[in-house]
Structures are given as C-alpha cells and as structure tokens.
C-alpha cells in the first residue's frame, strides 16, 4: 500500500474531537467517582447528568477510536517525519498503538465496573486513567518537541489535511 502524505480531514477532525472528549472525562469525573463510592458503600447513588455523560463520553470515545482504526487500516499511515531516529519512530508507533488500546480498554473496564459490578475492573479503570495521562503527556511533549525544537512542522500534520 502506498503511504498517504498525511492525515485526511476526517482523521484530523476525529483526533481533535476525541482529545476534547477525553479532557471532559477527566474534568467532569467527580459525578461518576461519587456515584461509584456510593455504590461500593451500599448507599443510593445521587442522580444527575454527570454519570450518564461520563458513560456516553466513554462510549463515544471507543466508537470514534474504532472508526479511526478503520480509516487508518484503509488509508495506511503517513511516514514518520524526516530527520527522526528509527528508535524514536518506533516509540511513536508504540505510543499511538497504546493510546488506541487505552481508548478501548477504558470504556470496557468502566462498563464492567458500572454495569457488571466488578470492583477489580474499577481499580483497573483508575490505573488506566493514570496511564493515559502519562502517555498523552509524552505524546504532547513529543509533538511540541518535533514542531518547535526539530522544526519539522509536525503539528501541521494534525492541522492540514493531505491526500
Ligand atoms: C475513554 C473513556 C473514559 C475515560 C477517559 C474515563 C476517565 C475516568 C476518570 C478520570 C475517572 C476518575 C478516576 C479517579 O478517581 O482518579 C473515572 C472513574 C470512573 N469511570 Fe471512567 N472513563 C471512561 C469511560 C468510562 C465508561 C464508559 C464507564 C462506564 C460505563 C466508566 C465508569 C467509571 C467508574 C465506575 C468510575 C469510578 C471508579 C472508581 O472511583 O473506582 N468510565 N473515569
Ligand atoms: C494538545 C494535545 C495533542 C496534540 C498537540 C497532538 C498532536 C498530534 C500530532 C501532531 C499527531 C500526528 C503525529 C504524526 O503524524 O506522526 C498526533 C497523532 C495521534 N494522536 Fe495526538 N495530539 C494531542 C493529544 C492527543 C490525545 C489526548 C490523544 C489520546 C488518545 C491523542 C492520540 C493520538 C493518536 C492515537 C495519534 C495517531 C494517529 C494515527 O496515526 O492513527 N492525541 N497527535
């Protein structure tokens, strides 16, 4: 398969919509955390919009991740930016793969906890939220390093569509 020269408009749009949804999952997690604590202590969970929003947000993130994986499989991935080191290109590939995996495992473990009452799944869910923060931090730092230190214009790849 010939490599595309960059990401399509749909891929770019999906990347940023998912970033926004993930930020909201962290900023607005208080409702689900309090509701889960109530469930664990055998109390009635307070009703409100935050719990359904957390669940809907998670379902959307996993559905959009599957769509992105399908687009990626159909189009192929652009070559790494020129001038990089093969070992670092591999780190980027592994990081992207792990980010996709987390976008699928987080909703799965969340659902197992919330709908299946599996307490271990809740514990794993919380550990995965910390892992996602670390990997997303690494990913953003790498993107900024490429763009501003290596000056290879990497950020434009998630801004300007290419065929
Ligand atoms: C990518 C999707 C998701 C992200 C990024 C996410 C993120 C988070 C975050 C940041 C917390 C708070 C963790 C903490 O206490 O430090 C949390 C808690 C929780 N989430 Fe999610 N979540 C996602 C999907 C879901 C889904 C789909 C469900 C349920 C169907 C769910 C159920 C829960 C539950 C039950 C807790 C409380 C766990 C506990 O406090 O032990 N999450 N989530
Ligand atoms: C401000 C925050 C962010 C910036 C500036 C950013 C920037 C970028 C850039 C420039 C690329 C293209 C890399 C390349 O062409 O080699 C990319 C790809 C990607 N980003 Fe982000 N990103 C951000 C946040 C996130 C977050 C929070 C996630 C969480 C899941 C994420 C997941 C991904 C994935 C999975 C790819 C690979 C796309 C693919 O090849 O299919 N990004 N990002």
Describe what this molecule looks like in 3D.
- This protein has 163 residues and is mainly α.
- It has one domain: Fumarate Reductase Cytochrome B subunit (Up-down Bundle), CATH 1.20.950.
- The protein has helices spanning 9-27, 30-40, 50-75, 86-114, 119-149.
- Helix 1 packs antiparallel against helix 3 (50-75).
- One protoporphyrin IX containing FE (HEM) binds at residues 15, 19, 22, 68, 72, 77-78, 80, 92, 96, 99-100, 103, 136, 139-140, 143, 154-155, 157-158.
What would the principal axes of the Cα set say about the shape?
Answer: elongated
Rg over CA atoms: 18 Å
What's the CATH topology label?
Answer: Fumarate Reductase Cytochrome B subunit
- What series of H and E elements makes up the topology? HHHHH
Largest sheet: none
Number of domains: 1
Number of strands: 0
The fraction of residues in strands falls at under 5%
- Given helix and strand content, the structural type is mainly alpha
Q: Please state the second-level CATH architecture.
A: Up-down Bundle
First and last CA, distance: 14 Å
What's the mean pLDDT score?
A: 95
State the share of residues found in helices, binned by percent.
over 70%
